[in-house]
Amino acid sequence: VPCKEPPKILRLDESVVNRIAAGEVIQRPVSAIKELVENSLDAQSTSVNVVVKDGGLKLIQVSDDGHGIRYEDLPILCERHTTSKLSTFEDLQSIKSMGFRGEALASMTYVGHVTVTTITKGQLHGYRVSYRDGVMEHEPKPCAAVKGTQITVENLFYNMTARRKTLQNASDDYTKIVDLLSRFAIHHINISFSCRKHGAARADVHSVGPTSRLDAIRTVYGASVARNLMKIEVSENDEACSGFKMDGLISNSNYVAKKITMVLFINGRMVECSALKRAIEIVYAATLPKASKPFIYMSIILPPEHVDVNVHPTKKEVSLLNQEVIIERIQSAVESKLRSSNDTRAFQEQD
Ligand code: ADP
Ligand code: MG
Is the ipTM of this complex over 0.95? Predict the structure, then answer.
């Protein structure tokens, strides 16, 4: 057979490139909300309120009382790779803020309609401005504002038919959003969070900070969870694990659930770690007589240079130096905690 001519390689339009990238960063409504809430946290807010309509497809609104955005910065706010958090690549090694890529807001403007209302300290009024495809649609308009920033995203994925179709189940996405806010609320116990459906009188997540971790868990996950938790702590300073600390709350043998709940923060970032999750499930199944799935809250601190935060487009995963050793330490701490609480119980039952 005669060989066909190779297809010609063309450079994609910038607008196509941007929309493809945006679809990766903003996978579903809940990813937009995670980015917006993390921006509010980075802005030192003490209160973050979320409103959602139609599972986030019609409307997402995140309001905070943080430091706000300068008027002069509004023109480039939603351009790709504009950020106030990172300047050199080396800064990534020690980055404390949740954001660093300057991509979240830009992405939202390529797959939805973004409006920003913001006021900075000492100003008499705020500004409101809408964005499309990275750019302002008009000059910022002066408006009344209290403190901080409110960002709304309307008609998410209006220009991505396939994505919209796969996200038809609004209740499914709202569940993910409530779960997200619940996790933030029990980690950031100095901050008040709320999450409600548009027009609903009652919030589905409502925490008031400052509070204790246990009270936050009681408020968000309920008394039956909070009642059955034990404190756990590990801190190691040997070579393999120098600077590693973990503290958390884990369920005891009275806790009953069909599914594991694992709320994990590493260096203040909400992440997933399936290897750690599996390791903990194994310990519970092996140690407790009636093996219920556990509730786990853990906050792990590692030297920043041991954590690579830039391995996932949504920053959902991080990669750790010495991951196996760290998982082993946690596994054995959980096991001894479970054993000692089981022994105490057996001892009490003999009395
Ligand atoms: P990143 O968080 O990676 O910097 P984003 O696209 O999420 O990128 O945000 C761009 C910039 O907009 C941030 O660096 C920050 O300066 C500003 N910003 C976004 N949201 C807020 C907010 N809620 N309050 C104050 N500033 C904000
Ligand atoms: Mg951000």
Answer: yes
Amino acid at 192: S
- How far apart are the C-alpha atoms of 131 and 18, rounded to whole Å? 14
Output the CA 167–ligand 1 centroid distance in Å: 26
Q: Is the CB of 104 under 6 A from ligand 1?
A: yes
226 contacts: CB under 8 Å, gap ≥ 6: 214, 215, 217, 218
pLDDT tens-digit series, residues 272-281: 998 999 999 9
Distance CA 54, CA 51 (A): 10
The CB of 65 under 6 Å from ligand 1? The reply is: no
What residue owns the CA closest to ligand 1's atom 21? 39
Task: Judge contact between 295 and 222, C-beta under 8 A.
Answer: no
| CA angle 282–283–284, rounded 5-degree value | 90
pLDDT by residue (tens digit) across 125-162? 999 999 999 999 999 999 999 999 999 999 999 999 99
Strand pairing class (261-266; 295-301) = parallel
